[in-house]
Amino acid sequence: MILNQIILGCVVGVYYSLVAIGLVLVYKVSGIVNFAYGNMGMMGAYIALLFLGKGMSPLASMLLVIPVAASMGYVVNRFTMRPLKGISHSSMLIVTLGIMMVFEGIAVQIFGADYKAFPELVKGRPFVFHIAGGLVLLRRQDLLVITIFAIFSVFMALLLKSTKIGLAMRAVSQDEQTAKLMGVNSNLIISIAWMISASLSAVVAILASPKTYISPGMMIHYQIEGFTAAVLGGFESLIVAALGGMLLGILETFVGDQLGNAFKPTISLAFIVAVLLIKPEGLFGRRKLEKL
Amino acid sequence: MRKFWIFLIVIFAMALLFAEDGIYPDKVVIGTFQALSGPYAVIGQGMTKGMKAYFNWVNSNGGVHGRKIELIVADDQLNPSKTVVEVKRLVEEDKVFAIVGGLGTYGCLAVMDYLNSKGVPFVYQGSGSSKLSNPPKKYVFPVQPDYLLEGQLIAKFLVGKLEKKSIAILYMNNDVGNEGLSGVKKRLSKYSMSPKLELPYNPLETDYSSLALKVLNANPDAVVIYGFITDTLRWIKTLKDYGYDRTIVTIYPNADPAFVSLGKEYVEGVIVTGWVPIPSEDNPEYTKDYQKFTEIYQKSYPNEIPSSYAVAGFIAAEVFTEALKKAGENPTREKLVKALESFNHWNGIMAKDISYGPNKRRGKSTMYFIKIESGLFKPITPLMGLED
Amino acid sequence: MEILKIEDLHVSFGGVKAVDGLNMNVEKGTLHALIGPNGAGKTTVFNAINGIVKKDSGRVIFKGMDITMLKTHRIASLGISRVFQNPALFKYMTVLDNILVGFHSKYEHGFVDEIIAGKKYQRELRRALSRAYYIADILEIKNRMGVYAANLPYGVQKMVELGRALMPEPSLLLLDEPAAGLSDSETRWLLEIIERIRNEMDITVIMIEHDMKLVMNISDVITVMDFGKKIAEGKPNEIRNNPEVLKAYLGGVKL
Questions:
Q1: Any alpha helices (H) in chain C, and if so which ranges?
Q2: For residue C94, what is the DSSP state?
Q3: Which residues, 6 or more positions from A119, have their beta carbon under 8 angstroms from its beta carbon?
Q4: pLDDT of residue B373
Q5: In this complex, is the C-beta atom of A281 within 8 Å of any C-beta atom belonging to chain C?
Q6: Partner-chain contact A182 C104, CB within 8 Å
């Protein structure tokens, strides 16, 4: 049964991981905790719905949204974050909270407040496995998300490890000034991070929508959980953020199973407070070696 | 002649002094609080549209005793602390005559005592809390059935009618869920039964796969889900994917077209409760009512299919308008209360079977059960009460 | 021929004049020292060249091009490298990655090449790696390439930073107190390397340095600053005997 819970926890956690990666990516490169992150994805999901309405396939709709979401990330960064560069972290946080509400307001005004459905990209009955005397149900869509997570992780790892852009991203994340002196156009790099992050958020929103349904508030839960996962990892590295998401998913599943579901939010939060008290640098932040 | 003018002014001043708040020669001003933005905007927007559609229709037909009804909508985003501020503003600054159709359990409970102490009638709450009707409060008139009642009726239906032996209750860990749970348990104890499984859950969570395993292990004859549209759908999808194919009953907020259009084949065979009549072959008169409702609604919102929240707002407006009519040419708040207390199984267009009395405030004590078949709501029982 | 020309440069911070009307010409192929007491504004001059600080007025001309208003990264791409007084390495990157960042402006491939890992990308990567190892060889840090920068001793950090600055084959190198914090033997070795940089790599060097022995030994030209102004300029011999310098800067002690 423990194995079952771990598998189911990972299925829950993989969404948190993807959100956390997007949050940490922007935070590392530009120092901004982006509370508007989830709602950028929400906007992306609505736009995907527009493409779908034009008769495109769900997959094509999602792929078409990626450049749109990337432009949205670019615009938000270029016209709100960059001009405000240098104000305090808490002020920046308030600004992103404001943008979050603006997006929600826009969505309510343009698309209305009622729930809308976006079909699953992969249809068909879920796989049911009998493991260790229990059942495990794996939805095809969830398996797709896990696959996308794996591909995206490898992509990011390769990008950061061995490309000019990736190296520049890491450089900017550690010391923007010095990176500039190496000829790195840090504004461009920050824009790229925002574009990747916004695209990721849109993909998560679209993939999660068979569960959450599309509505202006659809990403609130993921925003909170993704943020929590990132905090668990100390907002340090992408890998650690991903691990944090998985861990949070497994933790919630275990608490829900063993201690009762009513305890779930309490225990998860208590765990995070405990982590922050004992290890303020995050659960895995043992030696800050690789930051991105 | 001068004396006559002075006399007139004094009369006028006295009239102003003693005139009821919100009552003007040509209009009645009332207020409501709704979540027009924020995560629950879907409900608030729908309900507001329903109210506005009905009042627009009444006003275009000359209003009530020559007075038009003017509705002020305050957006509280379903945040109770905002509700308190907004309602105080409605009462003390906008001087509304009554509050009609406020949305949200916590908001309604937060302003209930304030309105009652100020003597401002509070007609229809978008909430199923039994605390609104019990104990009765002079100025508070709930219309929607409460979850305590509903829970008891669900248990009565499942055990009394369908003869189910074991029942699992999945409930949101909030007031709605807890009240529903206690309602079901209350009735089950009459049959000397208790739930096979009581499972609280967080409606914001997006995956119930691991919780569903508990339901499967308990293997109940029937599952009662105390949730709102999206989380209930997540539950139903998960349970059915795991192969659970027995009776699933859920609550009246889910008797909404969106529930079917979002749930598609998954909600086939699911039973929901209802308190608002829906058209069917067995009830041809309801079809006419529904057509009339749609017609009135589409006068204000052309080509829009009204949601169940719009129906709720519509009923709120209906009940208030009827009471205002009954309150006579020169309505006061006291007269409105008396008028409402005279409701005896009153039927409007969509409002059906509503009764109040001098010390009775539960407006609606009957509900019926609906099954979703081929994407349509099919009533499977008549209106049922707790007695009989 | 001058490679860098500074004309009437003014920089101030909140009313304090850090650089006050500086004029300075740097000849191509020379080792030009910039000296002066603490707070004379030497590092600010470097920052102004790099485009890190806002200039009140004046011009900076590099290879005949006015770079006064250009952004930091553009100036760097034109071929001006900078080495800080305290090593500003990317601590959480390996030595190799640190050095490779220095090559950023020299890559000739685009974003798409990277995504598809095309031939061009691989060629460019090989070019960057071979230059990194060539430089690491000269600076004798080849055996440290896999170490994280934060774990290096101070002296080696300085070498890595120098290596990073040399990566883009700059035509002008700004060295801010390269010998500070180094032992005598390290300083002697540094001296050798700086001479190799000027002679073999054909890189013009401007160096801020407090170690007078070093300065007098290797500089071709020395500019002396005090309170943001140039008070003297000339060959080491001339500076050594300039009464202005002795009075204002060296406190009367004969070198």
A1: 42-50, 72-77, 95-101, 111-116, 119-139, 154-166, 184-199, 212-218, 236-240, 243-248
A2: B
A3: A52, A58, A210
A4: 92
A5: no
A6: yes
- In chain B, what are the domains? 2-145+287-341 (3.40.50.2300), 147-274+368-379 (3.40.50.2300)
Asked if B321 reaches chain A (Cβ–Cβ under 8 Å), the answer is no
Match 């500070």 to its residue by tokens. Answer: C180
Quote the pLDDT of residue B8: 67
Nearest CB neighbour to B199, from listed A212, A216, A261: A261
B274 bridge partner residues: B368
- In Å, the largest CA–CA distance within chain B is 91
For residue A176, give both structure tokens. Answer: 């923007």
The CB density around residue B242, as the number of other CB atoms within 10 Å, is 18
Instruction: For chain C, give the number of residues.
Output: 255
Q: How far is CA C213 from the centre of its chain?
A: 19
Q: Distance of alpha carbon C126 from its chain centroid, rounded?
A: 26
Taking a C-beta distance cutoff of 8 angstroms, is the pair B225, B249 a contact? yes
Considering just the CA atoms, what is the radius of gyration of chain A in Å?
Answer: 19
Q: With touching defined as 3+ CB pairs under 8 A, do chains A and C touch?
A: yes
Q: Which of A9, A7, A6, A21 is nearest to A227 (CA)?
A: A21
pLDDT at A1: 67
Q: What is the pLDDT along chain B (388 residues), one digit of tens a residue?
A: 667 677 667 666 655 555 678 899 999 999 999 998 776 788 889 999 999 999 999 999 999 999 999 999 999 888 888 999 999 999 999 999 999 999 988 899 999 999 999 999 999 999 888 899 888 999 999 999 999 999 999 999 999 999 999 999 999 988 889 999 999 999 999 999 999 999 998 888 888 888 888 898 899 999 999 998 889 999 999 999 888 999 999 999 898 888 998 998 899 999 999 888 777 776 777 888 889 999 999 999 998 888 888 999 999 999 999 999 999 988 999 999 999 999 999 999 999 889 999 888 988 888 999 999 998 888 898 888 887 5
Distance between CA atoms of residues C207 and C194, nearest Å: 10
User: What would the two tokens of residue A39 be?
Assistant: 């709602």
Q: Are B120 and B358 in contact (CB under 8 A)?
A: no
Q: Taking Cα atoms as reference points, which of C163, C159, C160, C173 lies closest to residue C134?
A: C163
Q: How many residues does this entry show for chain B?
A: 388
Cβ neighbour number for residue B97 with a 10 Å cutoff: 26
Instruction: Report the amino acid identity of residue C194.
Output: I
- Rounded to whole angstroms, the maximal C-alpha distance in chain A is 61
Does the structure show a pLDDT above 90 at A253?
Answer: no
For A193, the 3-state DSSP assignment is helix
Q: Do B178 and A221 touch, CB atoms closer than 8 A?
A: no
What residue ranges in chain A does DSSP mark as E strands? 127-131, 134-138
Task: Give all strands of the β-sheet with C80-83 in edge-to-edge order.
Answer: C80-83, C172-176, C204-208, C31-35, C221-226, C229-234
Complex-level ipTM: 0.87
The SS3 of residue A75 is helix
Contact C73 A171 (CB under 8 A): no
| Pairing verdict, β C2-13 and C80-83 | unpaired
Residue C92 has its nearest CB partner, among A163, A183, A288, at A288
Query: CB under 8 Å to A202, separation ≥6 — which residues?
Result: A40, A41, A43, A44, A45, A47, A48, A62, A65, A66, A68, A69
Strand order in the sheet with C65-66: C16-27, C2-13, C57-62, C65-66
CB within 8 A of B125, min separation 6: which ones? B101, B102, B103, B108, B132, B140, B142, B143, B144
B254 secondary structure, DSSP code: G
The size of the A-B interface in CB pairs under 8 A is 98
Q: Is A171 on the interface with C (CB under 8 A)?
A: yes
